[in-house]
Amino acid sequence: MEPAAQLDAVEHYTIQKLGSDHTGHGLDHIRRVVKMTKRLAKDESIDEFIAIAAAYLHDTIDEKLVMSVKESQNELREFLRKIDFTQEQINQVMDIITKMSFADTLDGQRPELSPEGQVVQDADWLDAIGGIGIVRAIYFGGQHSERIYDPSIAPRQNMSRDDYRNLNNETIINHFYEKLLKIKSMLNTAAAQKVAQHRQQVMLDFLEEFKSEWNSEC
Ligand code: ADP
Ligand code: NI
């Protein structure tokens, strides 16, 4: 199979797996991550084919979205074999998508990623910050019955992986301090760091405005 046809097949696989997702991992997120992956890849000497395939597939094995992570990984490997990915390419893609999530960086370790993986991780994380990041946090928080804000609850410091998944007493505003504002300094590539500068300011301005309004100061 030609590479372009392989990527088409990968896109269709993703649509089939995530097309009905309403947790903020829907196809619109995937399309933005693919687009940003292509943009960031321009400045890096990486295998763009692997990066784009991983960008499409990165949420299809997510623990929050599938019944069994192991089974979804096996199914994905089988699918990639069927569309003529080499064993090496399959390993490259799986290595990226099993190690790139924010949750993987908690518990005091951060898995090492290939140059392709570093670009896809940046593209995914950029989609969690800025204006889109604000909306996704509110969308996620609303779906999980988080309160918007409670000044008496301090943001959690040094969250573990379990803390991150534990939404008891979580507020949407605290999520910014626990994760979203930290992303800027965790990005891998210079191009992503540049994009993040503006997005960070958008979040900081939003938080300042929110708190002023909360206190009837403006
Ligand atoms: P990742 O793709 O790195 O695993 P998640 O799947 O945990 O990230 O998060 C998906 C989206 O929901 C992101 O935009 C993230 O910031 C947001 N989100 C995750 N946890 C919370 C939370 N407790 N409150 C509000 N938004 C959240
Ligand atoms: Ni994602």
TrEMBL record:
Gene3D superfamilies: 1.20.58.1910, HD-domain/PDEase-like. InterPro entries: HD/PDEase_dom, HD_domain. Transmembrane segments: none annotated. Residues 22-138 form the HD/PDEase domain. PANTHER family: HD_PDEASE DOMAIN-CONTAINING PROTEIN, SUPERFAMILY HYDROLASE, PUTATIVE (AFU_ORTHOLOGUE AFUA_1G03035)-RELATED. This is HD domain-containing protein.
